[in-house]
Structure prediction request, 384 residues.
Amino acid sequence: MTEPSLRILFLTPYFRPYVGGIERAIEQFSAQLMGDHTVTAVGVLTTKYAFPRIPQPSWADRETTVEGISIFRLKGHPRRSLPVYSVPLVWFSPIQIRRYIEEFDPNVIHFVGDGWFWGHFWAWVWYRRRARFVFTPSFHTLPLRRQWIRPINAFLCKVMDSVITLTRQEKDQVSRAYWVHQSKLEVVGWGVPEVGRPDSREDNGPLSILCVGRLGHHKGQEWLLKVYFRARTRFRQSTRLLLVGRDEGMEKVIRDMVETVGLSHEVIVTGEISDEELLGWYTRSNLLVLFSQYEAFGLVFFEAMAHGIPVLTHDVGANRELLTKGAVIVAPFDETAAEDELVRLVNDNNLRRELGQDARNYALKWFTWASVAKRYLRIYQTLS
Prediction:
């Protein structure tokens, strides 16, 4: 039986030049798909906004990446910054959405993220008889002010041909919150690029502790600093803490905390950096720490683990389900436990190296894009 030829269009509210975890996952996934013989085209329909709904009118309406991925960007109304909870209210021209979709002519349309109702709705209206629809909601527990989004997501789940969750925990949450039958749900996570064996990290400099995430309340850098300031008095070797990520409201607070205790030489706030610079920090770091309030998947965990970096985090979201090797997980926001484990991982070089090797083996066995893409392709091909 001949496998169907796939033209896959992703719909997501944010994409390059803005890059977060989901955006990086879609980009890497798309590049992997372009190398498969059953895929003839991959596109991304997105907006001219950066998170959280910051208009970027100078971004090009369309472009094609070096891998051949077609990107279409839509203007939204109103053209001003809006709070995150109002994201689904931003209006996009249904005619422009139809024109872009008809030009690309997909037979699989994959919605990623639940923050773009009008884009998703009009794509489904215009193309529901010509393409199969897949939805990855990237579920988060909704605060009270966003509960009105639940029926929207429930509607999208109902009209989709398949709903894909990133973890088993998310599968149960989506099933309950959006009234989706388990038979319609699949579990497939994100992946990471395969990387070569990491060079031996320098032993003559300070031990590098890395935290990657937007500098906002959600990613927990302020909480991490409190833990680090106490733990460092018990370290038996010099360290540096690197906070990597764009400012989303907390950079000044974080810099002020560091300056107040006189550690600007030791705690480095890099701001937003390129993918190449991030790769450089992965190759030079010894430990990843991240204490987010919630992680649906936590792509940075697996990026670090693929480079042989062990992880210290806490038991929120699906961390316990996903991080079964190469990681130390403490109780949520337990400062004493986090401090003790940070001290142990800094001081015990052998433990840290053993965990790093376990982390690399685990990430490259289960979470490379080559293996993850095969699971998505099976779903797409079954629907087509």
